[in-house]
């Protein structure tokens, strides 16, 4: 895993990763001065398995299969002393001795001797490990709250440095976060992100942008009924110098607008990744997207479109593999992050005690000699045992046209998550 995580957009792309169709994230919460309380403990236990065929190996063969069993425990105290609160989270992951007979790799590691690239290429150790994935202090006064330390960051707040939920456990960040709601119908968020692990390797925390970090400002406004406007700016000082180029800073700007009208909803997004790289003809990355959807009783459906130009940096999450684009699916992040047009249709149905989902993606690669991409996701998710346990099953079909990708691939992913 590279030391300069915050533009891992210029690092090698991730092949064997993906995520589930995630629910809509909540908007940034209004800070509240905490009342006195003791410690509140909880956690989750997870079992996870996936397999993906290749040109040489079939589904369920150990060479193309990965698994993990995880146990995570957390505690929160909103007022330890004088309004100062704290929280922690410990995450442990094991292969349950399935390797090397049943699987060949861990889908996620908490061992600090394993990095993301090793897991991605099935080179990593499958030894059990544990990591302190959250450890923070909190304080609130008036309409302002402060959170300092290792923590999760939501995509709705931080679209280029967020905690991804598709793997066993979420990745986290070393950051200082300030939230203020003094302005009418407006939430202001300031952040300084200094470190991060990776959604594939929770045990490795590295610096973000060497020792310079990344600074973020987010404004979210809800003055108009049913309309949420969000704008985010990142500043990365000395980024390209830290990457070894003879250049300097980088800036990311991103905006999102969502409007809900009865059973229908529409959304627009767009932004740019700007930085003067070493190449004389380097271009800024510009992206935009749109989505329209609706709920019809037991059914819901949506259509989404995104475009990313041929800029040099692409659209990419810092501590993971996903994008903030509306067209993000389980495995299509490599295809949609740069120089493409993507169309995604989704439909969902509540049946058999759970939720079925079908999503279809077509991506036109606009690069010279680029290979177009198709993906179909079929998923089912439900809750059992008095809603204490979530169960997910997904099948993914992918096809990338071209001389290097003649065959389609299939992936199966299943997991169970018990909350306590």
Features:
single chain, 420 residues, mainly beta, 18-stranded antiparallel barrel, 3 helices, 3% helix, 51% strand, globular
Would you give an account of this structure?
The N terminus is likely disordered. The protein has 3 helices and 20 strands. 3% of the residues lie in helices and 51% in strands. The two termini are 32 Å apart. The chain has an 18-stranded antiparallel β-barrel. The protein is mainly β and 420 residues long.
From the N-terminal CA to the C-terminal CA, the straight-line distance is 32 Å
Helix and strand content put the structural class at mainly beta
Q: Portion of residues in helices?
A: under 10%
Poorly predicted regions are 1-27, 30-34
Query: Quick one: how many beta strands?
Result: 20
Described by its quaternary structure, the protein is single chain
Taken as a percent bin, the fraction of beta residues is over 45%
Whole-angstrom Rg? 21 Å
Look at the structure and give the mean pLDDT: 88
Pattern of helices and strands:
EEEEHEEEEEEEHEEEEHEEEEE
> What's the story with the biggest beta sheet?
18 strands, antiparallel, barrel
> What overall geometry do the principal axes of the alpha carbons give?
globular
Supply the number of helical segments: 3
